[in-house]
Amino acid sequence: MFPSSGKHIASTMRFAFDLNGSVLVKHHADRPPASYRAIETWGYDQGRKRYSATVMDNFGGARRMWSDGWKGNVLRWMVDTGKQPAQQFVYVRVSKDVYRVDWKIDRSGHGLEVGDTLTCRRRS
Fold first, then answer.
1. What was the pLDDT predicted at 8?
2. pLDDT tens-digit map of 72-93
3. Residue range 24-50: average pLDDT?
4. Residue 29 in domain
5. Is position 6 within any domain?
6. Taking the CB of the first residue and of the last residue of the chain, which one, N or C, has fewer CB atoms within 10 A?
7. Does 5 fall in a domain?
8. N-terminal to C-terminal alpha carbon distance within the chain
9. pTM over 0.85
10. What φ, ψ does residue 102 adopt, rounded to 5°?
11. Domain of 90?
12. Which sign does the torsion angle of CA 113, 1, 52, 68 carry?
């Protein structure tokens, strides 16, 4: 859902390990009428002692992110800002088979606000 407009959004996310289990690959595809598509790679950066990720999307976006890992039921990915506005992807474990993803962005320079929210359910 987009909190600012109340419009709903639906997506499919698939996760699979690659490189002998050292990298988790995420495929994200919004369902029409939304059109966002992305491939993400998540792994552990031994040199920096933190998790690192790269997101490539169908709009030409390329974002690098980092995380300290799970803190309780929350996994927070911070986007390396560079010239971009500050952004975070926050994964919240709701239950064994449900999690929520909040995309947060600082559009105004006054702090992060939720840009969209997805509630995800495991499919067998």
1. 86
2. 999 999 998 776 789 999 999 9
3. 96
4. yes
5. no
6. C
7. no
8. 24
9. yes
10. -110, 120
11. 11-121
12. positive
Distances from the Cα of 29 to the Cαs of 20, 40, 49, 78, 116, in angstroms? 25, 11, 30, 21, 14
User: Mapped to the 3 state alphabet, what secondary structure does 64-122 carry?
Assistant: EEEECCEECCEEEEEECCCCCCCEEEEEEEEECCEEEEEEEECCCCCCCEEEEEEEEEC
- What 3-state class would DSSP assign to 9? coil
The answer to whether the CB of 50 falls within 8 A of the CB of 58 is no
- Of 68 and 33, the one with more pLDDT: 68
Q: How far apart are CA 63 and CA 42, in angstroms?
A: 12
Answer whether residue 28 shows pLDDT above 90: yes
Distance CA 27, CA 40 (A): 7
Per DSSP, the three-state class of 34 is coil
Number of domains in the chain: 1
With respect to residue 75, please indicate whether it lies within any of the assigned structural domains. yes
For the record, the structure tokens of 29 come out as 């595809």
The whole-angstrom separation of Cα 57 and Cα 29 is 10
The pLDDT tens digits of the residues spanning 95-116 come to 999 999 999 999 988 899 999 9
